[in-house]
Every structure is written in structure tokens, then in C-alpha cells.
Amino acid sequence: MKAVRFFGHKDVRVVNDLVKPVPKGDEVLLKIGGAGVCHSDLHIIDEGTVVGTVFTLGHENAGWIEEVGSDVKDYKKGDAVLVYGPWGCGHCKPCQQSKENYCDHQSEMAYGGGLGLDGGMAEYMLVPSSRLLVPIYDLDPVIAAPLTDAALTPYSAIKRSIGKLTADEYVVVIGVGGLGHVALQILNEVSASSIIACDVTEEKLAFAKELGAAYVVNSKDANAAEQINKITGIKKAKVVIDFVGATSTIDLGTKVVGLDGDLTIVGLGGGHYQYNMSGFLLV
User: Fold this and answer.
1) Which ranges carry the Alcohol dehydrogenase-like N-terminal domain (predicted)?
2) Which tens digits make up the pLDDT trace of 207-250?
3) 3-state DSSP percent of the chain in helix, strand and coil, to 5
4) Domain 3-145 class?
5) What distance in Å separates the CA atoms of residue 25 and residue 117, rounded to the nearest whole number?
6) Sign of the dihedral through C-alpha 282, 236, 240, 203
7) At the fourth CATH level, which superfamily is domain 152-279?
8) Other residues' Cβ atoms within 10 Å of the Cβ of residue 162
9) Phi, psi (5° rounding) for residue 67?
10) pTM, whole model, 2 decimals?
């Protein structure tokens, strides 16, 4: 079996002699149809963020079931599925609440397939439990694979604030990139709030309009915050989601989020924010 394997810091090799896994119990063997390349893969390769083991890369995966273990009841060969990324223990309270990324035992185990355990940059992938699979029916696995990360990440951020995203409120999306453009699409499906999209390029702002943003603001503008606050009025934005995470975008978010609002920083842009508690209105 051919696979892309991580052997250590900046050591990635294509191998051709891996043994095809055989599923047991609740395990499922997946024939890979699509495996995404994420920036996290570059962190693993270039920075050695996952060390001490050799494994197959790829944590954004979709394909067709090739074989199931004896305990699998809900899936059969040929079913098209995607693979949920974080693999918790499956038994603790967070895992039972579908929050595997908060698994109580995360420090004792690998994070998931392609993140310490064998992932989907291979012909076949062994998934440890059928609970980690999501049916995709007729959706092309090549299209579906990135949804396990590029869609799940913004969805999780949006879900945290879903109760505040009412028709009389505004939500600001900062950064219309790989995650931000998906966030716009999700917001249009699950929220009635007016969307304000921010980016530094006019092309992405035009794209944001196509994806349903009611307003767009170039965050390079010196008065970007003033433009947004003029749109939202005295209440300001109820939800701000920052998909950049740079110091400038964090600063912008704090200037436009309203009282009892949510500022969620998803991007890992290395930003910092300094604040003075005396400058906050305490209620």
C-alpha cells in the first residue's frame, strides 16, 4: 500500500510497502477518495509539532468504506463517508458530548488520524470507530475531505454564538480566506444576522459579497472600525469572528464588538492584545 509517511522533523517520504490494514471490532477500513493538505501538516513537518512516532499524514479525509469490523452495524462496503478529525477516547464526558477535541485523555494519546496516528494520505485508512464517520452520500470525496477541517472549524466558532445571531444583530467576519469564506456560507444557512466581511484585498471582498455578505470593509483602511460601527450603530456587532488572529485584526475586533458580544479568535496569526481593565465597563 502506498502512503505519505512522517518520520520526523522535515522528514517525509512516500512508501510503497505498507500492509493494508484489516478492521476488527468497531473499526472501519476506508478506501481514500480525497485527502486534504492543511497548514497544520506544514507545522507537523517543519516544526515537529508531533514527535516520537512514525505515521501517515492527512487529517482531512473522505472516501468509501472498503471493509468493516464485526461490531459495525450502520455502515457497509461502498458507503461514502468523511472522517471526523479529532479522535478522543470516545468514553469521557467531552467525547460523549461530541467534543472529542476536549477529550479528558488527550494528553495520553495521539490527537487523531494524520496527527500522530495513520491518516488518509494513503490508499487505505483504518478508522478506529464507526462513530467517527459521517455519510456524504453523492458528494465527491475530493470536495468533502476539506469539510472535516475547513468547514468544521468555522462551524464550531459559529455554533458557540448561535443564540446571539438573531435577525436584529450583526456578525463581523474578519478574513475571507480558506476558513472565512466557508464561515460566510455557513452563516447564511444558520443565521439571520446581517454579515459584515472584512479583508485586505478587494478581490476577496467582492467574493464575500457573492457569498452573501451584506456589507464589506477593507480592514487596511485606517477607519475600518469606524466604518463598521457606522453600519452597526450604537449596539455595535453582537458577534465578531477573527480568522486571521494578527494583532491588527484582534484590535479591530475589540473595537467593533458590542456589550455582551462575542469575540472569537480562530486564526493563529501570532497576534497580541493588551488591555487596561479600567477601560472596560463592568456591569
Assistant:
1) 26-135
2) 999 999 999 999 999 999 999 999 999 999 999 999 999 999 99
3) 30, 30, 45
4) alpha beta
5) 18
6) negative
7) NAD(P)-binding Rossmann-like Domain (3.40.50.720)
8) 13
9) -160, 145
10) 0.86
